[in-house]
Structures
1.
Amino acid sequence: MEEAKPVTAGLVVIGNEVLSGRTRDANTQFIGASLNDLGIRLTEVRVVADSCDAIAEAVNALRARSDYVFTTGGIGPTHDDITAQCVARAFGVELVCDPAAAALLERHYGPERFNESRRRMAFVPEGATLIENPVSAAPGFQIENVFVMAGIPRIMQAMFKSIAHRLSGGAPLLSKTIATDLGEGALAADLGRLQDDFPAVEIGSYPSTAQGRMGVRLVLRSTDREILEEAGAACQAMVVSLGGAARELDYTA
Amino acid sequence: MEEAKPVTAGLVVIGNEVLSGRTRDANTQFIGASLNDLGIRLTEVRVVADSCDAIAEAVNALRARSDYVFTTGGIGPTHDDITAQCVARAFGVELVCDPAAAALLERHYGPERFNESRRRMAFVPEGATLIENPVSAAPGFQIENVFVMAGIPRIMQAMFKSIAHRLSGGAPLLSKTIATDLGEGALAADLGRLQDDFPAVEIGSYPSTAQGRMGVRLVLRSTDREILEEAGAACQAMVVSLGGAARELDYTA
């Protein structure tokens, strides 16, 4: 079977607070799942420090190999918010004041509170277009295939929704999840053969302790619904033939 | 002030299930915080797919630039567990059966259940030493500065504890967290000056909506306790001078 080249994306999570373990990143999960729904595969995530070298390197590495790149974090008004200047450096362009961004920030804060620090949030790499922030005004921006968004999950999610229409995905990846009480080692050989029989289906095996019981979740994913159904039936039959119980779960991710 | 070069680490999180958004990674937070306690800074995390090219590339990139590299995921018995062979490839060595690993797996499963798939878990790159798995027997391994661990958080954490004594950190990074009700834009200019005044302190600003109230947490980090105390006092005074309330929180990360 000829399969179209999948549309891919990379994500750069910017923030010392994630690396230090202070904050648990929530953006990867949201972006991974949302891209999946759009038929785009998140193929790599890099979490990097608040350092221009690290940010520019990650952005350049991922934009060269992915159809889309997203970044989260570092677009506020404080000295540690350096994403815009680092992305400008990655693209070799100037950081310029976007008049539309300045106007909407001034409207949001009022002339009194629109100080120098807040004005910083109006600066974007030359040639960038804005990404709307319906929560707290300060916009993200897009330059070429790179989308720069806030780190606060609620704001990031609102920004993502506002740019989803700019993304063109391929065929969505459909999935089937089969839960079983068998151990991984008991089903591994047969599962490997099932994978060989269905090369167009990506089969993952995940040990699980849901509801306190050890078990395995087998996740089958394919862009072809018919083949996925066939592989799912074969997988359930395999589990039963090994003496296990198979139960299809209602997951979509 | 002369500061010793910090001891650094990279982390490779291996797993399609994290990229698809199905699973929210918990290992970065644990490893980042645990390394911090040991005086080691996690400087980059890469989440990569179950692909040998991607795994080997990430391991090689991070081990060239970090004192330590950790990997999580992909060391079970199923066909999608390919970490050991990919790390062997990254190091240009053979994958060999470790007799001690084989013996402990056979003891754990019993000769009957120690099948070909489970025997796969005894294979490690030539020259590797084992990492104990007190939860489910199947060991991780260390080769040079790379530590390969399980993806299931409970097992990974037990493995990490068993290898912590193999790691030599530098001076631990101490931290101070000051919560304020001021907005980031209101304190950004003064905070930038504070950062300039204390170059040996890393100052981060994180908007927060804890307890439903908008506010900012200022996090100061340094290996020098005295300078950190001084910067903390200056930071509290700064917030008060701007008309805000400052409260030191009891965080350590």
2.
Amino acid sequence: MPEHKIRVDFEPFGKRVGIAPGHTLVDAARLAGLPLTSDCGGGGSCGQCVVIVRDQPDALSALTTTETDILSAEQLQLGQRLACQAELLQDVKVDVPFFSLITGQRLQVESATGEDLLPGTWDDLIVKPYQITVPPATLHDLRGDLDRVLDVLAEIHGCTGLSASPMVVRLLPDLLRQYHWQVKVLLRGSVIINFLPPNAYPLGVAVDLGTTKVAVYLVDLTNGVVLAAEGRPNPQIGYGEDVISRMIYVKNKPESAAVLSQAVVGVIDELTQLLTAQVQRSLQEVAEVCIVGNTAMTHLLLQLPVGQLAMAPYVPAAAAAQEMRAADLGLSLHGDVRVYVPPCVAGYVGADLVAMTLASAIGQDDRTVLGIDIGTNTEIILSKRGTRRLVALSCASGPAFEGAHIRFGMRAAAGAIERVWLNPEGPVVQTIGNGPAVGICGSGIIDVIAEMRRVGILNTHGRIQAGQPGVQPGVHSLEFLLVPAAQTATGEAILISQHDVDEILLAKGAIMAGIQVLLAVCDLQAQDLDEIILAGAFGTYLNLDTAIAISLVPNIPQERFRQVGNAAGDGARQILFSHTARKRALQLAREIEYVELTVYPGFRKHYARSMWL
Amino acid sequence: MPEHKIRVDFEPFGKRVGIAPGHTLVDAARLAGLPLTSDCGGGGSCGQCVVIVRDQPDALSALTTTETDILSAEQLQLGQRLACQAELLQDVKVDVPFFSLITGQRLQVESATGEDLLPGTWDDLIVKPYQITVPPATLHDLRGDLDRVLDVLAEIHGCTGLSASPMVVRLLPDLLRQYHWQVKVLLRGSVIINFLPPNAYPLGVAVDLGTTKVAVYLVDLTNGVVLAAEGRPNPQIGYGEDVISRMIYVKNKPESAAVLSQAVVGVIDELTQLLTAQVQRSLQEVAEVCIVGNTAMTHLLLQLPVGQLAMAPYVPAAAAAQEMRAADLGLSLHGDVRVYVPPCVAGYVGADLVAMTLASAIGQDDRTVLGIDIGTNTEIILSKRGTRRLVALSCASGPAFEGAHIRFGMRAAAGAIERVWLNPEGPVVQTIGNGPAVGICGSGIIDVIAEMRRVGILNTHGRIQAGQPGVQPGVHSLEFLLVPAAQTATGEAILISQHDVDEILLAKGAIMAGIQVLLAVCDLQAQDLDEIILAGAFGTYLNLDTAIAISLVPNIPQERFRQVGNAAGDGARQILFSHTARKRALQLAREIEYVELTVYPGFRKHYARSMWL
């Protein structure tokens, strides 16, 4: 016969444990992973392990003299008990005030920022879910529904000065009556942003809004864990491939501002619905959205004016963090759910760089670190040892590394050539998925250009040399035959044209010129770099040897490189759920110095030099 | 030849004065009605009269040694001067930090609440207009537009931690460039709710949302002065004459909630546009809305659920104050302009009673005062000397006093009989505008019933007695001929039927029963009342002698009555613009005890007795 167990429900956590009769509430709380503060070790003398049990006096052993000594008459009247004194007799529901918990216990992420909050702890959560039970309305308790919720939050959890908008209050009367006066309250600062059924939990959506690609992450808002993720092309590409042409489009056609905004909002909305469905959760549970992107992207998203951003002196309408109701932005999210856009640094260094810097911890120790987030716009940041300086800039590297403007270029998908070797016997290629080649992606095109230079097909100025093996006349200029028609998936030969080479040289030249300017501004040489962090999908998959060979990145030992994946997206995830991360982002946006390349004296010289191979 | 005068502009007030050269800035500020703090009387030793003059050092006399002694290097660098030391040489623009002003100087309204804020002072304003000039964007000052506004507000006015939503930021870039980097910032708490052209000033809209009538007041938000006012019938009447029937309509047809809300929002919107046009101001300048009404009215307005309010135990979805964006409610107001609905007391004692209590200062001194706001729902409040108690209830008096349900009833408009005397020679009537009678309004019907009882046409039970002068058989019962057909504007005789008398007896019985219950709850007699305050249009125009004669109100000396007009509307006006009033309203809503008539033991007895004449 199985041992009889008593069920103990701990609110507001919605945690239930089974435990044998006679144990104390301290034992049950420990079993539930909710360690209660107890300086006296359970003797009842410190009075810290206060819990609240209402309307079920028989579920626990009688009040001890220790409790009647320690607790005030008001505390006893509110049903407060010392958990170390109360033994379990029957199933019971217990409210745990947060002051009774050992704070910091739920710590999962190390904080290197010196903030007093620890990521992942209760106090650090942007959205706090409180599960509460309120006294039912009767002719002798005529308080409003919202008012009884506010009273419980104040009395049990010490949350005062709260408000809830009518949009949120509308949900409350039905929920309370359907779930027997139990409800999950989502609190954000002093605002109740939603009411949910008792067993729901808040989800968040982190978005990396790139010029070319939109990446969406569905996140557990109580601990920052990514539950699902998905990407899509940025549909604004139809209105201009780069940010300048999109901004000019909107400037000339102000009525199109809403169209461009709704295009990306639609993608974020679609992916949010898809991801919540994938993990079998409800869209109602989504309680916060954080979107990072370059300054132009976030301006277009929020329909902030871009006229002054597209022309000198290129100033944002707002560099400060922006926040608005998700519903106002057009997302299918209800209640008072907010979209948060972290601060940007300048007109061309946006919240994405702030998020990337945060996630890769640049500037959080005293080292000289270069961070590069390669995309259609490439942002570069440098921290200098011994100075606490963070200096950043942005360069228009274009979409060539994403396969655009390259004749046989494609995104990094099945069939894309990702590695190339030019052996004496001829070219050898490796494709994603190892099937026949369809085209060539960013890492492949860097490989092929490095190899073409190594074997002498390209000279130092990047010109294709006639008479070299595989070089043949093309429509406009010489071309290099990489994969013959018979070996491709399409039946068409894959060729590298002079135009392709020029596109890549322009892109890599822009990035290297930016790096050189940053090093010059900080009075550093490449060899001084303790670390180079390569962020973004392309930066993660590129081959360091060939990237160094074409001087896309500085030539320092490969062990000093760290390829970190989508750091901007990861920063968005952190800023989404954690106050510590949000504060750190505000601090970074203030601290990062911006270099405007177009007015930097040495820029043209650096750019011209960086085009060489 | 006119004396040469120097123009001095004081910001953020946008005040300009002309003054002869050689005067100090203290003199100019006094002339502008902006008295600067100066404990030392102008000697320069107290250092309190700090003002800021940027970019115009030549407009003032050189820095004195007193100034260089008193002001820090940072203060001098920010362009700070001591106004008592700086003499005027040329036209100049001066920023006055609020800490330099004698606070309380703009006091207009006496505060009896013991709050530290004084109504009408700068700190007390709900919406504060800051007129600022920001440094222009250049290639050497790349801050965002919002960021330069935030910096000036922090540096000059000490306002930090501010935010502005994208909806508001959208307006900023064009405004700054159109008005040479000058802008009016409307600050509400820590939120910038709108940006306006430099010379605009914030307006507010106060609304008394009655069951039968909507009254709208356009108010200067910087001092609470009413600029224009207008009323309209409540269009929800088409969905039910009383609140219960409207709530049941919405409960049975949830999709109609938006329809009923939009009906009143449409009236408020129309009147707001009309009133701003009347005073030749822009709708853009409207920066705050405050709406009071009974609990059902504000629930229907905000589309809060009413199912639980229409049935026992009659609890509101929210008694707490509610706030939402005006645009979300459907008002044609832009930016982050908010609608504020003050707290209510209970399901049938709403924000209108709170506003009425506030405006008529009930409970702000130690007297026994009865406040009555007669309407379709009549709210009654009693303060008891020596106890600090405030007790309130509500009774369903119906719309008879507004002319509804009375055969020849009409609103108090031209042609309405407002006074009646039954002389031995026959009835004498006085109409509004003194023209031929069209119908009879509330005060007239009370007169006629009191007179009919006095001369014996009605007995103590309110039955029309056959054989009395003017009494004739009607369709269903006996009738009394008040005005013969030949003397009316319509050519139809004006008659008072038994049904009319019954309606008025029901209404006045409900009110008197409520008064009796309140007196009983507080253990008082009518003679203990120091004052009876009659609020609302009807309460203001009724004739005290006949109202006492039919026992609509207690029989105490007439000098103890005070007829105060639309006190609920005036309370809404105060809560609209003043923090002091808003805090007092929150305090009142907490303090007022509510008596639920339907469960009060003696109610039926009181009601039955109150029906007698």
